[in-house]
Model the fold of this input.
Amino acid sequence: MNWFNRLSAAKRTLIVIAAAVVVVIAAVSGWMVLGPGPMDFAGGRRVALADYHEADPTGVPPELERASLVQRGEYLERAADCRSCHTAVGGTPFAGGRAFTISIGTLYSANITPDKETGIGAWSDAAFLGAIHKGIDDEGTPLYPAMPSASFTGMTDADALAIKAYLFSLKPVHNEVPQNSLGFPFNQRWLVGVSSFFFNPDRRFEPNADRSAQWNRGAYLAENLAHCGECHTPRNLAFALDNRKKFSGEFQAGWRAYNITADKESGVGAWSAAELAQYLSTGHADGRGTAAGPMGDAVDNSLKYLTPGDIAAIVSYLQTVPAIASTDLPATKASPAPASHREGVVADGNPHGKQIFEGACASCHGWTGVGPLTRYATLTGARAVNDPTATNVAQIVLNGMARDTPHGKVFMPAFGNAYSDTEVAAVANYVTARFGAQPSGITAKQVAKLRQEN
Amino acid sequence: MIKLQINGQVREVDVVEDTPLLWVLRDVLGLTGTKFGCGIAQCGACTVHVDGKAVRSCLLAVGAIGNRAVTTIEAVGQTPAGARVQKAWLDLEVVQCGYCQSGQIMSAAALLAATPHPDDSDIDAAMAGNICRCGTYVRIRAAIKKAAGERQA
Amino acid sequence: MTIHTVSGPSRALSRRTILRAGAAAGGGLLLGFYAPFADAAAANTSGAAPSDGGPFAPDAFIRVDRAGKVTLIMPQVEMGQGVYTSLSMILAEELDAAFATVAVEAAPPSDALYGNPMFGIQATGNSNSVRAFWKKLRQAGAGARAILIEAAALQWKVDPASCTASDSEVIHPPTGRKLGYGALADAAAKLTPPANPPLKNPKDFKLIGKPLRRLDTQDKVNGKALYGIDMLPPGVKFAAIAACPVFGGKVAHVNDSAATAMPGVRQIVVLSDLVAVVGDHFWAAKQGLEALDITWNDGPNAHVNSAQIRKDIKAASEHEGAVAKSRGDVEKALKGGDPIEAHYEVPFLSHAPMEPMNCTVHVRPDGCDVWVGTQVCARAQAIAARVTGLPLEKVTVHNQLIGGGFGRRLDVDGIEKSVRVAQKVDGPVKVVWTREEDIRHDFYRPIYYDRITATLKDGRIDGWKHRVTGSSIMARWFPLGFQHGVDIDGVDSAIDEPYDIPNMRVEFLRHEPPAVPTGFWRGVGPNNNVFAIESFIDELARKAGKDPLDFRLAMLGKTPRLKTALELAAKKAHWGDPLPPRVGRGIAAQISFASFIATIAEVEVDREGEVRLRRITCAVDTGIAVNPDTIVAQLQGGLVFGVTAALYGEITIDKGRVQQSNFNNYRMLRIDQTPPIDVHLIKSGEAPGGIGETGTTAGPPAVRNAIYAATGIALRRLPIDREVLAGRKQP
Ligand code: FES
Ligand code: FES
Done:
């Protein structure tokens, strides 16, 4: 092991990690390959699409049946939300270049406009299907798992090609996206190939013959287009979705995607179907909170364009996902805080939190937590303020939010540039203590880390 | 047409529902006492009362007001707390450029109406949302206390 | 700029003020006065000044009508500093007018008639309104009083010397006869005011020195006061504008299809460098602007960024500058001792007055009306004339109350833009900047880099070399103030720093940042200099093993007024009393704007680097205090302004764009962070000093030095870096 000792400490660590990853993949992959698929929780008989006798769960909703291929593709693209990832901040939609800073480095999304040189203009149908279904590019090289091909793999060829037709109807944009910068061993694409060999079953959607057409439609939308699990389902050590813990929540790109199982306390089991539908289609449900961050994008770029029927289908599917409790998430507190700043829970020992709240936050959120100006600012009942990690509260304070809701533009300014990590932590802890079920204890250090992850 | 109750009068305005009250007051109704400072609820210059509570009119859509009563700086002197605050403001020479003071006075009047004898922490909680670039804060605090004291007398 | 101006105040003030009386339209007395200095400097910017024999201009300074009402045509603008009241008091004092009968009226534009004696142009700035008009207004008041007395004496056929005046009446004590000023105004208008009317002995002042209620506050508490942004001329439309986010960039292409379809949007105005949307109300205009798809041509400045600017100014500061002041033998003193060197840096700052930039304009073929709050009324007129091509007299400027100037409204860029937009609009249009646009297109307080080297001898400073590197605002704004490489504002309070230092040299090195426009910001040059000097003094005191108070007092022998102020401030702040851990007191002592001010801040710094202000105490000798309560208010407010900048103020540039936009990221001190601020005035018989900016200048070094005392960390750059104070970053 002489050669090994001569390497720098960093390189040694990396090699150890690389070895560990390979071993872990080998060790657990057997267990994983046998692990459940995303819809397996429902039991029942899975049949090929052609053998399903109820209404076709794939394709576009009835409202668009007569629409052109491009229009159908546009609807399906909305449902699959390609643009959220394939658009840089402030950039042209679909022209790629959005940076994803993850623990192992930075990934940049591809240009998927029909530009022949920098986009996908030269791609054949087969190449496009390869990317969607198998996560390989037009030269057969595996794409990084930021592309949710393990979810998209269920998409029918017809739907995928409709999306392609839509993308090819757009104006080509010449935009060379930056090279991914990953540290060893994660810059080894063959590893991705290994992992997708195990984790991407490369199978199209198979309806559950024992379930209604609505449920199957919801399953197809949620699993194979909207790819909810990519954020909401925990991942195993090899970055694959662990459907044993399906939809029970995960930390993702600096945000916390919450538990959306039927658990009454920590999931959405207590939400009515109407509340779920309102949240999915507007990014807000009274008494349940307002979507921000990646979920805000998902609503504004994608879910709000779905027909009420499709939203209802997703809801009916979602409500059948088995409850899994997140032990670190208390039941959300539903009652507003007292109207007086004197009453209610106060974060101990840190006067900054209250001070920042009264200066910068109270005007919109109120001392009660019920927004005096817009319901979108209501904190009462929101999962984020009932999350003792305060991850999402801190993220919203740092980055603000800008939502294009069905009720017009809603925004919160970003405070990250003028408030210190200490202050952001203090105000987040004050907010969870005052409006949530239990106070959080996020630290300045953790806030500093969140800044990096966005 | 949207119907609004402003300073005891019914006013009808022809604007889209999500127009913030601030611009309806200033540009449509000519009530320019309510000021624009930031447009993002960070400065308080646009503060008015809606059913007696201090709210930022720059982010309050007129369509969301319904028949709640809106009071602006032009009429706050007709409320007991508003009159006391205005007097204390003059007695202690709070005002400098004056641009933020409509909002300061609206916030202070709402505070006194709800909390007749505010202490420093009450003043902080009610007034920290109002920025004064001229830096009149020391006197604002003193004037609120004076206005509160005069009620007892 | 305070004392050493090339063509400055001493010359202007020593000139004889010429008084002329005449009849007012509608009856009554009109009294004009001007200092000949004004026409020399101002002839190029506006009409000719009245000469001794010429026709009497109707825009006189004072009117006494037949009812006895006294109107001061106010040359200075009110932006919160209380100048309407202070100048009225000075006039009323010498005129012996009942203060309640005195009213003010904003002067129309004319550098010749209303030029500030310290600038030669009609400008309100540099904390000099009272200083500049002190003598003039006293002479005018005394001159008017003299002819009113003379008119009464003529009527009574008595010796004027046997008459006196009080409360707007002339009295003849021997007979007890009285005549009101109103009844005498017509007769007085026919008399010639004395060339040098005797002025009161300050001990006889009845108004000056009394805390009087301000004249402008009543309407500011009931919503009636009108600022520029409140103008609603009949038929007015509202415009929101966007200039290229990159400095100097241009409009490449605008797609307005979505915007024109929006309710309330009336017109899209596309100019070379900016786009405006005109609507029925500002919200419609703003929504329309957001709906525009604008492609900008960023131009050559898209690479400009703060990191490079900072690097460049630091490198530039290595070169020698132009010598602004030299005394003794600096080189020898520095060689003879053990030189201590430190560098200080202050950032770009935006003004962010509460009233965002705005201007209402109506351009017609034969004239132009401009409604605006400006610190430079005649320049406002001139720029509108230049843009429209109209002669000056066809441009009417209606100057309004100002919702915060702080130097921002010494520039007329906003008026220029608004007039250009208005040229394309039929009827009056009010152009309002969003806060974002206001912060991103300011004339920023420049970044400065200061190098100071000093030697100590026997516990005192022996040699002192101070080089100020930065933008010359004067070169752009008032070229007379930038000569031989020295910007008089850039070295203000550096060349007249107060300590007894035998060998010293102050240099100015002009270094303009690329693309970023710079302008005056409350506290102007002294802001930077007092911060650097007073910070360094504290570091030297520590080197000398001395208490910062004793160290300063020992070197203030030649500046007794400041010494007294410092001793008083120290006493009131309980200097030397024990403090809890992590709490410190810090001093700033300075002469600025001809005021002598000592400030002591007491702060607490927690382990996370957060700074809490516990108390600020200051003592000031500003000469005769005209309206003492206003002086206290200005110091309190100025300190908040300065401390805000010290804690949070910084404009940064990336890709040629300002990164800050609104109060969420350009942060302001709030009431719950503001400590008690005690101001102690020292009685003085000297001529009044300036006060509007002194507090701003005092705040940052006092707080910085208090942090130094509390933590031992010597911060050398503003704003205060809390990461450094938390120990997470090197200073
Ligand atoms: S304008 Fe509404 S809070 Fe600033
Ligand atoms: S008085 Fe000027 S901003 Fe408050």
Remarks:
- The pocket of FE2/S2 (inorganic) cluster (ligand 2) is lined by residues B 95-101, 132-134, 136; C 80, 354, 404 (CB under 6 Å).
- The beta strands of chain A are 99-102, 105-108, 181-182, 250-252, 255-257, 284-285, 289-290, 401-405, 408-412.
- The interface with chain C takes residues 352, 355, 358-360, 400, 413-420, 422-423, 444 of chain A (CB under 8 Å).
